[in-house]
Amino acid sequence: MSAYEDTLAALRRHREENRDFDLRAAFAADPERFSRYSVASDDMLLDYSKCAVGDETLRLLTDFADAAGLAERREAMFSGERINTTEDRAVLHTALRNSSTPVMLDGQDVMPDVEAVLSAMSAFAEAVRAGDLTGATGKRFTDVVNIGIGGSDLGPAMATLALAPYHDGPRLHYVSNVDGAHIADTLKELDPETTLFIVASKTFTTVETMTNAGTARTWMAEKLGSGAVGAHFAAVSTALDKVAAFGIDETRVFGFWDWVGGRYSLWSAIGLPIMIAVGSENFRRFLAGAEAMDRHFREAPARENMPVLLGLVGFWHRAVCAYPARAVIPYDQRLSRLPAYLQQLDMESNGKRVTLDGDPVAIPTGPLVWGEPGTNGQHAFFQLLHQGTDVIPVEFILAANGHEPALKHHHDLLVANCLAQSEALMKGRTLEEATAQLRAKGMGEAEARALAPHRVFPGNRPSLTIVYDKLDPFALGRLIALYEHRVFVEAALFRINAFDQWGVELGKELATELLPVVEGKKDASARDASTSGLVAHIRALRQG
Ligand SMILES: O=P(O)(O)OC[C@H]1O[C@H](O)[C@H](O)[C@@H](O)[C@@H]1O
């Protein structure tokens, strides 16, 4: 057996031997448990003491990370090796926020190109913000519409909302869905004279984005004439030839590179709408936050390293404890798009079924990731987290301070709720406690006994909590980079390639085949009975 298989077997044995691990007993037995199983870097703290891990668990997990070659893979990523082997690409999103050393790729420093695009973006963004760059009729832009999907949408949309207190540029809108409702509802609100479109697509072939961009171009041409269109469009892409073919002037095109994965691209020119919203200085602070996390990830020893610990605990929950999902609950309304962003980051990266060598994986890989902001989630699905039959580890994200000092009472309530939920998941409530509580309320014995089982919380359910001072651009950059690296750590332990996404291709191919069928240009007889039955039903409804 290899060291990897050996340590995995040891981890599984360890889990079996500790099946009855009880968080309540662990806290009672060890007054130091919080300080032992939490780690801080500057103002950011990761508390994983409410997870069923101990020193032996962590020793085995770090041994396992050594056996999986985590440190070597991390170095390979930072130093520009082509670790995305199935696409033969380097993975260098960290270079986009690097401010010091050269970053070499095939013997060439990529930093001059990175800096050049950043300066061009800044000049463009600041000109839009200042009203120096205007629409065709000379009016300043009041609204910017980003047309993109997946990585060309979720990151900027999430960050724009997260940084609302810093948003002093034009209004931002995001159109992603090919559903015409999305662009129609957006355009309804807009004045073409004061609207700027950014077409964001790494490949510039994505059908949703190209369809929406075409519709936007037609809308603009119909309103202001075709000569006006150029002044109202900019683009972000790695495929500069395709952007030129679409007709966007090269002075308004911001490039990036194939070594930036779509879901890791908000630090690149894909971040242009963020920059237009909050200004280039705030965007630089956002990059600086990510860079601080990169340094921490690269340098801190495993037991003090936040992304490593988050990854080890995530791996423990998924691959050893076999929990199917993780819930990410930001106690921050402005992070309400974070779960959607993390779904792409985590599930598109680690939803894989073969190892780097192409062999079937022997362990469960990426979990289902989902969530909603607290406190809203509490009034919706927390029931299942507390009393459902699956154990779903929860990740709480919390700022100590809000941006609204006048509403401190709101923030106090928010913090109290976040802490209460992790405590409730851990402590639970026994049958005796539930019965006693009902008796104390004056309920008769028979009634209390009948109702009490419904009011039992099993407790001993794992959660971890990430706390920082305030959600400013630096903190947001650091938080996103923390999650990027956690996904990297888990992928290294799963021994999969986190940087390709072949799993999205089949559906695209079939959609291309099915379009003429839907349009009625081809019949559906070659499809399976379900698909052709659905096509017939849809056609009947369309005719009726
Ligand atoms: O930026 P684009 O090339 O338009 O790609 C947009 C998105 O679509 C693809 O299908 C991928 O699954 C995503 O990783 C990508 O972010």
Written account of the structure:
- The chain has 544 residues and is α/β, with parallel strands linked by helices.
- 48% of the residues lie in helices and 11% in strands.
- The chain has 21 helices and 13 strands.
- Helix 1 (3-17) runs antiparallel to helix 4.
- The radius of gyration is 26 Å and the shape is globular.
- The termini are far apart.
- The model has no long low-confidence stretch (mean pLDDT 97).
- The structure holds 6-O-phosphono-alpha-D-glucopyranose (G6P).
- Residues 149-152, 201-203, 206, 209, 262-263, 348, 501, 504 line the site of 6-O-phosphono-alpha-D-glucopyranose.
- Residues 149-152, 201-203, 206, 209, 262-263, 348, 501, 504 line the site of 6-O-phosphono-alpha-D-glucopyranose (G6P).
Key structural traits:
544 residues; alpha/beta; six-stranded mixed beta sheet; five-stranded parallel beta sheet; 21 helices; 13 strands; binds 6-O-phosphono-alpha-D-glucopyranose; SIS_PGI_1; gluconeogenesis
- Radius of gyration, in Å, reads 26 Å
Structural class: alpha/beta
**How helix-rich are the residues, as a percent range?**
40-55%
So what's the overall shape?
globular
Note the beta-strand portion: 5-15%
**Distinct small molecules:** 6-O-phosphono-alpha-D-glucopyranose
Strand order of the largest sheet: 1-2-13-12-10-11
- Terminal residue distance: 65 Å
How many beta strands in the DSSP annotation? 13
Extract low-pLDDT stretches: none
Number of helices: 21
- Average pLDDT works out at 97
Largest sheet: 6 strands, mixed
